[in-house]
Design brief:
32% helix, alpha/beta, single chain, five-stranded parallel β-sheet, binds xanthosine-5'-monophosphate
Length: 528
């Protein structure tokens, strides 16, 4: 079970997680840690290679972030990216200068010096036979003098040292960002670094990972019992399937229906887990309790808090009945645990309080089992498929913990939830059934998240010969890679037309459909 490991030190770039994802795509295990870890940590991690990330700060002089000295003393290959190149330069005796001019966006970089990192990797050749790369740059400062032992590896007209290498020590650095898809050969470059230069085996694959994860869970849990809160979402479902594979009936899933789920969701979850997998699932229909507590509450944050607290209460009551349970399993995934931002003090404003059950294990006196802690979302999905979960379930759009509670604006009523469920199901069905001829994919697959939102206002309409005075729904569909920013999806008019017509004709009580054309930021994906 010993995988070769790559250590990624994070200096606070927005895109550090992308470095990790590219490395994992090259079938190599890696972890992200803050740049200020100790020398001892770096040594005991025993990486086969180290990557130094970029930083959020655009200028080098803003801060004094450095890599631990051990990075350069371990004898393993090191790759510096953007800010990582600056810190490497300064720590190894070269020079960086602040520059007035910020380079941001597309650039064409010329490769120099036939390094192993760039050998055979290029997008095109100039008439003079220079290998060229199309890349994404984002930096203010520049390396003005190479550290001793380094040679020039890449340049652009405005950035004469855009890449450098000391091949005797296997130290490389690039000014551009190979982790973003705009750098066309970025994936090839990172793969070259971790697989060929560092010699990592490429043994990180979900199919073979199952045996390993199963063995680990068995060892951890022994003969004790585990409970898991099943939400129907991808993460908890994959965690449940994996743990069930490992320990069968020692696992009990608790599925809390808060009355704010999508159409037929409870049925689907029960069919899959109790029906097909023969897992032990306790189905708690707590919808009346939740809707009772929410009656008359209109403030989004209060609604979120009530749903979160109520969930904990219901779950706790169920858990207490399972007197043998010693473990609480959760579908925590790597992006939830990774400590990014370089320094540990970075603060963020709370835009929305996310529904979580973080306090549960302590109050219940349970140990925490988180078998997906080291996986990215795409890996969780691949694992789900490898475990035999239906791809439709595994590739579902995310659904927020508070469910329709944040998609019914203001006061939540059962009547509203029922209307919204039906409108939403029509929208999703049409997205799944409409294939985009250009890509051959369904619009469900081409969007990252799509749903309907219930607006508790009435508008006048006409149906047949009669006047209607009914509610409005808004359709929301976005495209995003990280859910931090998102664009509204340019759905075909014909699709919108069909969805609108079906909702108005089939869902009595809704007579108007609108489409949300707001991007995030400044809007958020959910409406509350
Ligand atoms: P926003 O609305 O903040 O949403 O742009 C970003 C992503 O997070 C999801 N979301 C939640 N997920 N519990 C969750 O598990 C929550 O309380 C919650 N609120 C928002 C949202 O659906 C989108 O994918």
């Amino acid at each position: 079970m010993q995988h070769d490991k790559v250590l990624i030190l994070d200096f606070g770039s927005q895109v550090t997680q992308l470095i990790a994802r590219r490395v994992r795509e090259a079938a190599v295990y890696c972890e992200i840690h803050p740049n200020d870890v100790s020398d001892d940590f770096v040594r005991s991690f025993a990486p086969k290679a180290i990557i130094l990330s970029g930083s959020h700060a655009s200028t080098y002089e803003d801060h004094e972030l450095r890599a631990p000295q051990a990075v350069y003393e371990l004898g393993v290959p090191v790759l510096g990216i953007c800010y990582g190149m600056f810190t490497m330069t300064v720590q190894l005796g070269g020079q960086v200068e602040a520059s007035e001019h910020r380079e941001f966006g597309y650039a064409e970089v010329r490769a120099h010096g036939h390094t192993q990192l760039l050998d055979g990797i290029q997008d095109f050749e100039t008439p003079e036979k220079h290998g060229m790369l199309k890349v994404w740059m984002s930096h203010g400062d520049k390396v003005t003098s190479l550290p001793p032992g380094f040679k020039l590896m890449a340049s652009t007209p405005s950035c004469p040292i855009a890449g450098m290498a000391d091949e005797s020590r296997r130290f490389y650095a690039v000014q551009f960002h190979p982790e973003v898809t705009h750098t066309l050969q970025g994936e090839a470059l990172l793969r070259r670094f971790v697989r060929d230069i560092a010699g990592c085996k490429g043994d990180w694959q979900m199919g073979s990972y199952i045996d390993e994860a199963v063995a680990r869970i068995r060892e951890q849990v022994g003969s004790e019992e585990v409970i898991l809160g099943l939400s129907g979402g991808v993460d908890s479902s994959v965690a449940a399937a994996l743990i069930h594979r490992a320990i069968g009936d020692q696992l009990t899933c608790v599925f809390v229906d808060h009355g704010l789920l999508r159409l037929n969701e409870a049925q689907m979850v029960m069919d899959m887990f109790a029906g097909r997998l023969h897992a032990r699932v306790v189905h708690v229909d707590a919808s009346e309790q939740f809707l009772g507590k929410l009656a008359g509450v209109t403030d989004p944050e209060r609604k979120r808090k009530i749903i979160g607290a109520e969930f904990v209460e219901v779950f706790q009551a169920e858990a207490k009945k399972l007197t043998n349970a010693k473990w609480l399993a959760q579908g925590t995934i790597y992006p939830d645990v990774v400590e990014s931002g370089g320094t540990k003090t970075k603060k963020a404003t709370t835009i929305k309080s996310h529904h979580n059950v973080g306090g549960l294990p302590e109050t219940l006196g349970l140990k925490l089992l988180e078998p997906l802690r080291e996986l990215f979302k795409d890996e969780v999905r691949a694992l789900g498929v490898a475990l035999g979960l239906p791809p439709d379930m595994v590739y579902r759009h995310p659904f927020p913990g508070p469910g329709l509670g944040v998609r019914i604006l203001g006061d939540i009523r059962k009547e509203y939830a029922d209307l919204l469920r039906r409108a939403d199901a029509i929208f999703i069905e049409e997205l799944r059934n409409t294939i985009d001829p250009a890509t051959g994919k369904s619009w469900y697959g081409l969007t990252s998240q799509a749903f309907a939102v219930f607006l508790p206002v009435k508008s006048v309409g006409v149906m047949g010969d009669g006047r209607t005075y009914d509610y409005v729904v808004a359709l929301r569909a976005v495209q995003t890679s990280d859910f931090m920013t998102a664009d509204w999806a340019e759905l075909p008019y014909a699709l919108l037309k069909k969805v609108s017509s079906r909702i108005i004709n089939e869902v009595r009580g809704i007579n108007r459909v609108t489409y949300d054309v707001s991007s995030k930021p400044p809007a958020t994906i959910e409406w509350e």
